[in-house]
């Protein structure tokens, strides 16, 4: 009898843990299409938070400068991006990557920095499961790295003027977009990808989720992180513990600028220093946005932020 009771309790615990893991996976990576904020929502938010971009935004949309492009990724899903040409012909191009549950239009303030202030061409992709791109879950910037490399190729083809053999690109991401940028930096990238800018990215998906699990639910990492990571592997083909942005930074060789607000608690400011120190190959620089919360460095310090980026990509 005791054996059956013990076995029954064990089965109940396994089922409960599986149920909790399934809930946490859906909670963290689920993003039903009906929940996605519209392009207008993000354009209006940019106008409110960064009012100096308003005239430029109104102009590029009024004059139909913002173009849509779609492609089928090697994994088989339909992906979308928006792009705009520089005011004057140039080989300089920025691929600007959005964050968690955002979309391409949510990065128009950074597009302003590159297009209006620095005279770059800009391409802004919708990552898997975001905006107008297909997808059934959020990839936290890990599997997205392959798509961004493909988008960099598209940007090179779109913006390569007849006088240039190729573009000179910077990949710039914020939050999950920064995690994507760092993940890309650890892979072999074409010569036309020259710089990386990561703004408030996390050291790893595991670290970020473990912190949020403790912050939001008051729970330790073990065992729920382990089982949820395993379930992610079974459902989506990747796990939390393999998604190590910091390991990608260690492997990177091209220049990288690290940005973080020192009042960031969502992706803790404490993650900045380990990431910066992990980069042992190639040029690097750091910009600490004093008093800025998560993803607010540009809003709070846009002039200094712009100068830091301009200086870094201009070297």
Catalogue the unreliable spans. Answer: none
Number of helices: 12
Count of structural domains: 2
CATH C-level label of the largest domain: Alpha Beta
Going across the biggest sheet, name each strand in turn.
Answer: 1-2-4-3-5-6-7-8
Helix content: 40-55%
Organism: Prevotella pectinovora
Pfam family, one: Peptidase_S9
GO molecular function: serine-type peptidase activity
Protein name: Contig46, whole genome shotgun sequence
In words, what does this structure look like?
With 315 residues, the chain is of the alpha/beta class. The protein has 2 domains: 1-30 and 205-241, no CATH class; 34-204 and 243-314, Alpha/Beta hydrolase fold, catalytic domain (Rossmann fold). Helices cover 45% and strands 16% of the residues. It is built from 12 helices and 8 strands. The protein has helices spanning 2-29, 39-49, 54-62, 108-117, 144-159, 176-185, 205-217, 224-236, 245-251, 272-278, 297-300, 302-314; strands at 67-72, 78-84, 92-97, 121-126, 168-174, 193-199, 256-261, 284-289. Strands 1-2-4-3-5-6-7-8 form an 8-stranded mixed sheet, with helices on both faces. Helix 6 (176-185) links the parallel strand 5 and strand 6 (193-199). Helix 9 runs parallel beside helix 10. It is globular and about 80 Å long. The termini are far apart.
């Amino acid at each position: 009898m005791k054996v059956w009771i013990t076995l029954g309790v064990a089965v109940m615990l396994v089922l409960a843990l599986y149920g909790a893991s399934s809930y946490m996976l859906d909670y963290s990576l689920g993003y039903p299409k009906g929940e996605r904020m519209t392009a207008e929502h993000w354009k209006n938010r940019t106008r409110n938070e960064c009012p100096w971009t308003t005239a430029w935004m109104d102009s590029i949309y009024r004059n139909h400068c913002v173009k849509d492009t779609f492609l089928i990724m090697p994994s088989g899903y339909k992906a979308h991006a928006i792009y705009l040409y520089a005011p004057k012909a140039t080989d300089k191009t920025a691929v600007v990557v959005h964050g968690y549950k955002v979309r391409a239009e949510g990065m128009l303030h950074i597009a302003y920095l590159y297009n209006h202030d620095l005279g770059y061409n800009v391409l802004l992709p919708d990552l898997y499961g975001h905006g107008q791109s297909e997808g059934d879950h959020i990839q936290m910037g890990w599997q997205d790295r392959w798509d961004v490399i493909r988008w960099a190729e598209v940007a090179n083809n779109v913006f390569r003027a007849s006088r240039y053999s190729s573009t000179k690109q910077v990949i710039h991401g914020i939050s999950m977009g920064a995690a994507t940028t760092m993940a890309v930096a650890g892979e072999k990238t074409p010569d036309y990808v020259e710089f990386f800018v990561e703004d408030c990215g996390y050291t790893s998906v595991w670290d970020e989720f473990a912190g949020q699990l403790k912050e939001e639910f008051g729970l330790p990492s073990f065992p729920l992180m382990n089982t949820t990571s395993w379930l992610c592997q079974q459902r989506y083909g990747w796990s939390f513990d393999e998604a190590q942005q910091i390991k990608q930074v260690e492997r990177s060789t091209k220049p990288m600028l690290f940005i973080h607000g020192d009042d960031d608690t969502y992706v803790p400011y404490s993650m900045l220093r380990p990431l910066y120190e992990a980069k042992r190959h190639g040029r690097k620089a750091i910009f600490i946005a004093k008093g800025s919360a998560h993803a607010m460095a540009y809003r709070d310090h846009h002039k200094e932020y712009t100068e830091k980026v301009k200086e870094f990509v201009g070297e």
